[in-house]
Amino acid sequence: MRKTKRHIRKRNRFSIVFPILTIIGIGVVVVLSSFYEKSWTYNWNGIRQQIKDSVKVAEYGGISSGFVGIAAKRPKQFDRRLWIMKNATETELLKLTEYPNGTIKTIAYEGLIRKPEFKNKTDLILKAISDTEHPIEFQSGCVGTNMNISEYLVDFVLYIDDKSPPPPFGFENKFGLSESERNKILFEYRKIPSLWK
Questions:
Q1: How far apart are CA 149 and CA 167, in angstroms?
Q2: Strand locations in 6-100, DSSP E?
Q3: What pTM does this model have?
Q4: How far apart are CA 182 and CA 162, in angstroms?
Q5: Number of C-beta neighbours around residue 55 at 10 A
Q6: How far apart are CA 37 and CA 108, in angstroms?
Q7: Residues 177, 122: contact at Cβ < 8 Å?
């Protein structure tokens, strides 16, 4: 009899503790998954520490045109973006096009487009056009808007769409794209729904 009562007590304790531990475990999983960011598991191999540090700071700053707003000073994010594009190697920029954040992807795409020695620009731009998972926040002066990576690249870097804002004074097509390449880019670009126009 005593043996049976002892087993019953142990079984009763387990039947009380198991549901409590299950609820706690599910709660931990839900909390962690709701705050999880893909950048936590990004593979940084091949990217120097200075570039990594700048990327981590630039990640949440959006893309700035550099125009001055009410604050009467140029945003630091503009200079940070230029620094990354200038100092990152072609290999690092190619790797950063896979980073799970729209701002960093945009900086990487723009940096590669602006590098005269990078040859495969048309395919790179077509890849950027199909990359619609991560929109960006673009700020010009006091005005900010959300847009796709491709909208920024086509309208504010390449200036090849007839609906783009006017290019800066003296702008020339320095990116080495032929007329047929520009038409191919625009054909694919116009298939994607706009976020800002």
A1: 18
A2: 63-64
A3: 0.80
A4: 12
A5: 24
A6: 20
A7: yes
Distance in angstroms (rounded) separating the CA atoms of residues 111 and 85: 5
The strands making up 63-64's β-sheet, listed across from edge to edge, are 63-64, 136-140, 143-147
- At 60 the three-state DSSP class reads coil
**b/e 96-129 (16+ beta carbons within 10 angstroms → b):** bbebebbbbbbbbbbbbbbbeebeebbebbbebb
Integer Rg of the chain from CA: 25
Q: How far is CA 46 from the centre of its chain?
A: 19
E strands along the chain, which residues?
63-64, 136-140, 143-147
Note the pLDDT tens digit of each residue in 29-86: 887 777 767 777 788 999 999 999 999 999 988 898 877 766 667 778 888 999 999 9
| Average pLDDT of the chain, as a whole number | 85
pLDDT, position 1:
46
